[in-house]
Specification:
- By secondary structure, this protein is of the alpha+beta class.
- 59% of the residues lie in helices and 18% in strands.
- A hairpin with a 2-residue loop joins strand 4 and strand 5 (151-154).
- The radius of gyration is 35 Å and the shape is elongated.
């Protein structure tokens, strides 16, 4: 009888050890799945935030691209104002509107590309012709260029020096 009890106890102990091993394996599997789920969630959060920032950048660029022609027209108008009317009050008022447009553009994070007297760079400049001046240098800006977050939304249209003075 003692032999049977001993054998039964041994069988029960083996079954319990096997059940414990299986439970530990299942626990390890669940722990690994939990760790992967947390990593997946963090990646999702990161991608979502990146998507939001990209959407913001694209929206700002879209708005700026549509506002720039108006800004360009105002800039050209001021460059063409005759000196005899430059001191009129209405010219000052229009000048303030011009500056407000510029403020709206820059508030989106847009930065005007500095082109005049800079070496020609096809990443930032679009050459529309050659003119007298230092070779390879921007000698005249025909239309301002703009960037947002190091991305060119509109290159500056420029005249490039041809090496003659």
């Amino acid at each position: 009888m003692e032999e049977m009890n001993s054998e039964t106890n041994e069988n029960v102990e083996n079954e319990l050890n096997l059940a414990l091993e299986q439970a530990l394996l299942r626990c390890k599997e669940l722990e690994d799945a939990h760790t992967r789920a947390i990593a997946d969630y963090r990646n999702l959060e990161r991608r979502t935030e990146e998507g939001r920032l990209e959407l913001r950048r694209l929206t700002a660029a879209s708005v700026i691209i549509n506002i720039l022609p108006i800004y360009d027209d105002l800039t050209r108008a001021f460059e063409a104002i005759d000196l005899s009317i430059q001191n009129h009050d209405w010219v000052s008022g229009i000048s303030l509107i011009h500056e407000k447009f510029r403020g709206v553009i820059t508030s989106t994070g847009a930065i005007e590309i500095e082109a005049l007297n800079q070496p020609f760079n096809p990443k930032f400049h679009e050459a529309i012709g050659y003119a007298e001046g230092a070779e390879g240098e921007v000698v005249q800006v025909m239309q301002s260029g703009w960037i947002i977050d190091d991305n060119v939304i509109r290159p500056a249209m420029v005249m490039v020096g041809n090496g003659t003075n």
